[in-house]
Design goal:
about 250 residues; six-stranded mixed beta sheet; antibiotic resistance; ATP-binding; four-stranded antiparallel beta sheet; Rossmann fold; transport; 9 helices; alpha/beta; ABC_transporter_ATP-binding
């Protein structure tokens, strides 16, 4: 199904017993864009992703993905998405190529071997394709994990903290990978605690705080929330980190 809004969330509420995690979350994600959802630990980012992926039910609100309602058409939503969690879902006993072939077979994709080879090449893993995943570096495992999520070319990909625990070079490799498949038209929803990651990758940024979206806009719009600082006639634009801390601090005071 094609749509002018690939992900639409309205009035999303979710509680765990007496703990309210989401309290009326609203946002849209346009097709073929990277949307970064920022927030501190416990802000509810992973809960949002699980709801979007139909892994959790909601207490209130509506969610549509690729034009399908997650409550009434969950199977269609699942067929439209792929989810990469905080920890790589890689089978260490299999080679990189075998991991990809397995996923392709589970998704009933034609020519699983060719699909695996194409993804290994696309993610610069061809030479390592025959080695066990247990021998891969952190960055290689993460690239393989993301490659597995793209089997079948899903129109929507959820990346939950994709670079947590990676070294700087591995982070850059993953960033390059995300840019490349977003450039091919894939819609990406990315959660992260790394503000520089959002600055580098996102077309649009939302800050989730205490269960609500408190800021939502482009990088330029978000930075415009704070005035530039001038030092000896040199204009300094606020960083996304400064905006994030200022917004969260304001909400805390309220």
């Amino acid at each position: 199904m094609t749509t002018d809004v690939m992900i639409r969330v309205r009035g999303l509420e979710k509680s765990y017993k007496d703990l309210k995690v989401l309290e009326g979350v609203d946002f849209d994600v346009a097709p073929g864009t990277i949307f970064a959802l920022l927030g501190s630990n416990g802000a509810g980012k992973t809960t949002v992703v699980k709801v979007l992926a139909t892994l959790l039910g909601v207490d209130a609100g509506t969610v549509t993905v690729n034009g399908y309602d997650s409550a009434t058409q969950p199977q269609h939503v699942r067929e439209s998405i792929s989810l990469t969690g905080q920890f790589a879902a890689v089978d260490d006993m299999l080679s990189g190529r075998e991991n990809l072939v397995l996923v392709a077979k589970l998704r009933h994709v034609e020519n699983p071997g060719q699909v695996a080879d194409d993804l290994l090449e696309r993610f610069s893993l061809t030479q390592a394709g025959g080695r066990k995943a247990s021998e891969y570096s952190g960055g290689m495992r993460r690239r393989l994990d993301i490659a597995m999520s793209l089997v079948g070319d899903p129109p929507v990909v959820f990346l939950d903290e994709p670079t947590t625990g990676l070294d700087p070079q591995s982070r850059l490799d993953v960033w390059r990978t995300i840019r490349e498949f977003a450039a091919r038209g894939t819609t990406v929803l990315l959660t992260t605690q790394y503000l520089d990651e959002a600055e580098q990758l996102a077309d649009r940024i939302a800050i989730l705080h205490r269960g609500r979206i408190v800021v939502n806009g482009t990088l330029a719009e978000v930075k415009a929330l704070l005035p530039p600082t001038k030092v000896e006639y040199v204009e300094k634009q606020p960083t996304l980190e400064e905006v994030f801390l200022a917004v969260v601090g304001t909400q805390e005071r309220r």
